[in-house]
Write a structure and sequence with these properties.
This protein has about 55 residues and is mainly α. Helices cover about 95% and strands about 0% of the residues. It is elongated and about 60 Å long.
């Protein structure tokens, strides 16, 4: 039973992680276009949220 469950699971897990890495790599180009705006906007959002919360 072990070869069907343990070894097969590891093989499928490797294929799944490989596919997820390839999907993430495809998205990096799109993320590069909006990363500047996100990095500029996030500190402003946190500043206003903390000011509003009174911290």
């Amino acid at each position: 039973m072990e070869p069907f469950f343990v070894d097969l699971f590891r093989g499928v897990l490797v294929l799944f992680i490989l596919e997820m890495g390839m999907a993430a790599a495809r998205q990096l180009r799109r993320f590069g276009r909006v990363a500047g705006r996100m990095l500029a906007g996030v500190p402003l959002v946190h500043m206003f949220a903390r000011t509003w919360a009174g911290l």
